[in-house]
Each structure stands twice: as C-alpha cells, then as structure tokens.
Design goal:
CATH topology of the largest domain: Rossmann fold
CATH superfamily of the largest domain: NAD(P)-binding Rossmann-like Domain
Distance between the termini: 38 Å
Order of helices and strands: EHEEHEHEHEEHEEEHEEHEEHH
CATH class of the largest domain: Alpha Beta
CATH architecture of the largest domain: 3-Layer(aba) Sandwich
Number of helices: 9
Radius of gyration: 19 Å
Strand content: 15-25%
Strand order of the largest sheet: 3-2-1-4-5-6-11
Number of domains: 2
C-alpha cells in the first residue's frame, strides 16, 4: 500500500519543518514547497522532496498540487506583523492561498490545513472564542490571514474540500527566528549589560511550544472530517514581555539593565494582550503539555543550545 502523499507549503520554515518531521514519522510521503526566504533546507530530512519556488505564480501551484496529493498543509506566508510593505504582504498571502485552493479543488485534494493567526481577532476580549465577532484585525498581516480564511470558507462551501483552519497563538521552540526570544538572545550576545524592550514590557500573550502545536494539528486532522472547522491553538496562560526578558537573562546567567522604547505596544499593529479560548480543542481531548511560561523557558534553552550560546541549564524543562 502506497503511503499517503501530502504537500507542506513553507515546510522549510520554523513550524513547517517540525510538522514535516512529524508527518514523516507517521509514514507519509512529504512534498515541501518553500521560497526559502526564511526557510532552511538543512532543517529537512533527506527523505523530503523539496521544491524551491514562489506560490504567487499559479503555474507553480498547479505543478505541485497533483492528483496524488491527498492533503495540503498551507503554512507559507509573509508573516511579519510590522512588514514594511503591507500591500505586498496582503496580496502575497491572499494570492498564494487562492492559487493553492484553486489547484486543490481542481485536482480533488481531500483536505486543506491552514495556519491562520490570533491577529484576525484584533484587540478582542480574553479569552477569545472562535465565534467572537466582528473580526477587526489591526495589522495588514491579520487582514491577510482573514482574507485567506474567506477564500477557504468559500471553497469549503462550494466543493468537497475539507478545511481545517487553525488560529495560532505565539509558537516557540527550536528553529524560531525573528521573534522575541531569539531577538533577546541576540541582543544580549551583543551587549550582556543592557537589553532594550520594545514598548513598555507589559504586553502579555500566550506562547505555545511547537511540539504542542504539531500534536494538536495531528490530533484534529486524524479525528475530524469537517466541511470547515476553525480552532484556536494556544495556552490557557500568558507571559509578559518583561518576564520573557527575565527568563532569557536567567538562562544566559546575566543581569542586564532593562530599557524600554515606550508605549503600550511594540510596533504599529501589535496587539498588546492576547489569550485565546481553547475549549473547542480541549473538548477533543487536547491540552498543551507546556503552559505559556514553561514553553518560553524550554524554547529559550533549546534556542541557546541551537545557537551555541552557553546557558545555565543544559537540559530542557519537563
């Protein structure tokens, strides 16, 4: 019996590469497409078929979404919330999703797994449930993710395509780049005496370890066969940016002076406080193994080891 063939877009990136590892462990044939703007091929097993290409080209989507593909996992995105080309970010993310959905429907793909974001909710009451509305994202990135959800909803209601829509909190772990933990590590490597924090340090959000993230995706796709389902993916607890700075400094055995750029958010479009309701996912039997602060500490230790930076503790927390 031939193994199931799946396509993972953005599969050479942070979350994508961890998902690819899990899918290979499940015995699936995995095809990855990634433009390699942030992904790294060395994060992928040699058992993976890799295509370096741009999915904003419809011909590329048509080439990789073949009749042998049973499930598309769509993680590719321009993901900077403070992207300096917001119009390009919006159009890139929406165009990639549209091209993939069209190809998936045309070739009879069974399932489409999409990684959306908590940013679609904007500044919402907490914990935020999936049925909260109206949805009012405050960044072009959040708007682009909401547009992608609209494209997928239309496809799910007009074709046999089964859509799994996951709205992520902040995901952390090995291979993470361009986020608060690796940013603090790099700053302290450059100057161990001082750490600049964007905003006032009181921004507070949920942080989920990437192993919990991948486990949740696998559980839902194995248990459910929906027309379309949207699920929040996060933790019941939150961690403030000040606390993350303290954890990183502790793990590097440093005591830097903390300085602040000021204001209640780190950048334009930043949501200062975010905590998602995960009751729908919990009803399926899933709970995160690592609550927010434990996820942050474990990810810090893993990144220090990965970046070859000395830390005070060698083994990740359980």
């Amino acid at each position: 019996m031939k193994p199931e063939t799946v396509l993972v877009t953005g599969g050479a990136g942070f979350i994508g590469s961890h998902l690819v590892d899990a899918l290979l462990d499940d015995g699936k044939r995995v095809i990855v497409i990634d433009d390699m703007s942030t992904g790294r091929e060395e994060w992928l097993s040699t058992d993976t078929e890799v295509h370096a290409a741009d999915l904003t080209d419809p011909a590329v989507a048509d080439e990789v979404v073949t009749e042998t593909v049973e499930t598309v996992y769509h993680l590719a995105a321009k993901s900077d919330v403070d992207d300096d080309q917001p119009s390009k970010q919006f159009h890139t993310n929406a165009q990639m999703t549209y091209n993939l959905v069209e190809a998936a429907v045309d070739t009879g793909v069974s399932s489409f797994v999409f990684t959306s974001s908590s940013t679609i909710y904007g500044e919402a009451p907490q914990p935020t449930p999936e049925d909260f509305g109206p949805l009012e994202p405050i960044s072009p990135y959040g708007a682009s993710k909401l547009a992608c959800e609209g494209i997928l909803s239309a496809a799910a209601h007009t074709s046999p395509l089964s859509v799994y829509n996951f709205r992520f909190a902040n995901i952390v772990g090995p291979r993470l780049r361009g986020a608060v933990i690796p940013d603090f590590i790099e700053k302290l490597q450059q100057d161990p005496t001082r750490l600049e924090i964007l905003g006032d340090g009181r921004q507070e959000k949920s942080y989920l370890h990437v192993t919990d993230c991948v486990e949740a995706i696998r559980l839902v796709t194995e248990q459910l066969d929906p027309s379309m389902i949207s699920l929040n993916l996060g933790t019941r607890t939150t961690t403030a940016v000040d606390r993350i700075a303290t954890i990183v400094a502790e793990e590097m055995n440093l005591a830097p002076e903390l300085t602040y750029t000021g204001g209640d958010r780190g950048w334009m479009g930043d949501v200062p406080r975010m905590r998602l309701s995960i009751e729908k996912l919990a009803a399926l039997g899933w709970e995160p193994r690592y609550e927010s602060e434990k996820a942050v500490r474990r990810a810090t230790r893993e990144l220090l080891e990965e970046m070859d930076v000395p830390s005070t503790v060698a083994e990740p927390a359980n």
